Write a sequence for this structure.
């Protein structure tokens, strides 16, 4: 009995120590990284830990020993949502098949980057879950799969399929990757058993409609019962051994400094960070992005744990995306700080609260009923408006009398994963292959009268000190590249932090002694406050390496933007385009990219003589198709 007590005490003590260490970012600890605690060898080109090695991910890499009716799910993801939906489809197919002894369904999941292990000639039923990245392109790791499919001569008359296309309607080429795959499969003779579903901004109601439809269609598909040829350990072997989203590198922050001068609340706050990637196996090209895994503020974690009356040392199941640990159980404080999104509450959280509403006040019950009356999807505007203003802890505090009765493991089951954030790299590997620079605008705002902040940018600015480390990886962007011919002019349009990749472009062009013109359009609010890399750019102008055009929107009574400069320079820009110039745009997709595109249309019409609106758009589309008009844009 005594031994049992001692063992339990030791377990609690270890959990407490681990939680204390992990929650100490910015404290007196010299090495306050939990990553160092669980793995004293930093992640390198051949890391010891990967998502696939965790026990609770094995179900999606199952090898079937008995004959059955195989169903293939291929997913292509940039930020993880496609993978999540593919796994949900796997679970539903598995459950659907378990309900009938006759179906014998055997779902399998393959990442599109590992498509080489798949033989479509041996498949009968294929479901593709694919997102559209950037300006209408497939996710970076799925480019080779899509290119292969587009060039494939296969006859797929035997194959039944359906496509779930994920995208964001704020971008011009909404769901283009999914549409491309759908059309190509039809061209190769495959039979579409359920119409492609185009999903806007993680609309789970639309996703569920597609799930239900494809499950019903499985009864009608002729799938031969046979032994599976596919061995997913081959898929694992095909994966890169270098740092990746699933195997990030623990990089030390070498340099950090402010790029802006703030004189009042609401002023832009932008920082420059430099990460050491020596001996990491990380390779990148100018135009790529750096993925950074943030760490939540320990104060926010403590506040949430206090609402649900839970100790941070309480042991919980490690999520399958716990990229730095093989442990099956970790302290609750650890997983909340490193692996769960505390900002964006899921609709399902309110469903969980409603399950425990019998212990709530009548007011709490009625509020939950009103919020959930019209379901949990985007069509329930009242619910979406409620969640749009609140973080997870706000929801729990609104129903605190219920929340304190919820088990922390149940709560984690209704929370989103903490995802990496992506930042255009603002340095060239030609200049320094061991240092990756990023330029980040720190996000601070208010809702419901409460101060809010961006998770990653405030992690970088407020909590990650020089000399400390965080997990990073490269996100390739092959559709944002300098021309091979260095004699060609390049026109770069990047207001605000949209300047970041162009700093890398200019560095590389100077280092390679490119003879073509470097023309940069940069915009910000005030010359004296948020003119990023001002001294550096002005020195490049003095040396003759750069022509710089600036727009300071708040420097005069009427706001003036980069698109206004473009119209002013119409004749010169047309001359450059006529001599083979490459156009690049980086920054906000919701407004800036549209406004710049409209200004470029005016250039084509006014100086190029293509007077019709369609003619101008067609001209720019042709440039885009030929790789001479490239965009790296995002929605904030």
């Amino acid at each position: 009995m005594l031994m049992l007590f001692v063992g339990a005490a030791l377990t609690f003590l270890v959990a407490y120590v681990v939680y204390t260490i992990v929650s100490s970012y910015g404290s007196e600890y010299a090495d306050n990284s939990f990553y160092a605690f669980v793995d004293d060898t930093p992640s390198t080109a051949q890391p010891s830990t990967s998502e696939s090695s965790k026990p609770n991910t094995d179900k999606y890499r199952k090898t079937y020993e008995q004959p059955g009716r195989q169903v293939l799910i291929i997913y292509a993801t940039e930020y993880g949502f496609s993978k999540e939906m593919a796994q949900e489809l796997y679970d539903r197919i598995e459950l659907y098949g378990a309900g009938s002894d006759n179906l014998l369904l055997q779902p399998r999941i393959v990442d599109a980057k590992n498509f080489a292990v798949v033989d479509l000639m041996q498949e009968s039923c294929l479901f593709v879950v694919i997102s559209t990245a950037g300006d209408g392109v497939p996710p970076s790791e799925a480019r080779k799969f899509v290119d292969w499919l587009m060039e494939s001569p296969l006859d797929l008359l035997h194959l039944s399929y359906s496509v779930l296309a994920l995208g964001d309607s704020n971008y011009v080429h909404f769901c283009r990757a999914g549409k491309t795959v759908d059309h190509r499969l039809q061209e190769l003779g495959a039979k579409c058993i359920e119409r492609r579903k185009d999903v806007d901004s993680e609309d789970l109601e639309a996703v569920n409609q597609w799930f239900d439809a494809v499950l019903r269609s499985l009864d009608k598909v002729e799938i031969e019962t046979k032994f599976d040829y596919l061995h997913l350990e081959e898929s694992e072997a095909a994966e890169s051994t270098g740092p990746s989203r699933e195997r990030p590198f623990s990089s030390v922050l070498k340099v950090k400094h402010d790029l802006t001068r703030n004189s009042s609340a609401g002023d832009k706050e932008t920082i420059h960070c430099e990460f050491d990637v020596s001996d990491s196996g990380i390779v990148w090209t100018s135009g790529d992005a750096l993925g950074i895994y943030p760490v939540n503020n320990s104060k926010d974690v403590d506040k949430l744990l206090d609402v649900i009356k839970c100790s941070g040392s309480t042991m919980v199941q490690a999520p399958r995306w716990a990229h730095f640990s093989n442990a099956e159980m970790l302290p609750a404080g650890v997983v909340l700080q490193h692996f769960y999104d505390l900002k964006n509450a899921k609709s399902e959280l309110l469903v969980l609260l409603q399950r425990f509403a019998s212990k709530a006040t009548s007011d709490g019950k009625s509020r939950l009923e009103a919020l959930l009356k019209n379901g949990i999807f985007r069509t329930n505007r009242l619910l979406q408006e409620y969640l749009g203003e609140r973080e997870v802890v706000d929801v729990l505090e609104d129903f605190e009398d219920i929340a304190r009765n919820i088990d922390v493991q149940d709560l984690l089951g209704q929370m989103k994963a903490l995802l990496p954030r992506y930042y255009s790299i603002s340095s060239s590997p030609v200049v320094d292959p061991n240092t990756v620079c990023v330029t980040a605008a720190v996000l601070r705002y208010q809702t419901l009268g409460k101060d809010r902040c961006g998770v990653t940018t405030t992690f970088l600015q407020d909590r990650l000190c020089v000399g400390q480390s965080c997990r990073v990886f490269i996100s390739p962007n092959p559709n944002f590249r300098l021309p091979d011919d260095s004699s060609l002019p390049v026109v770069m349009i990047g207001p605000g932090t949209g300047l970041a990749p162009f700093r890398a472009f200019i560095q590389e062009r100077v280092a390679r002694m490119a003879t073509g013109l470097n023309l940069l359009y940069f915009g910000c609010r005030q010359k004296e406050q948020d003119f990023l890399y001002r001294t550096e750019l002005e020195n490049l102008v003095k040396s003759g390496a750069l022509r710089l055009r600036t727009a300071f929107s708040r420097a005069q009574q009427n706001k003036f933007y980069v698109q206004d400069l473009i119209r002013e320079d119409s004749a010169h820009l047309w001359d450059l385009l006529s001599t083979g110039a490459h156009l690049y745009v980086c920054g906000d997709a919701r407004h800036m990219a549209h406004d710049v595109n409209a200004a470029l249309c005016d250039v084509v019409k006014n100086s190029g003589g293509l007077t019709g609106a369609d003619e101008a758009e067609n001209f720019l589309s042709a440039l885009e198709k030929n790789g001479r008009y490239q965009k790296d844009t995002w929605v904030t």
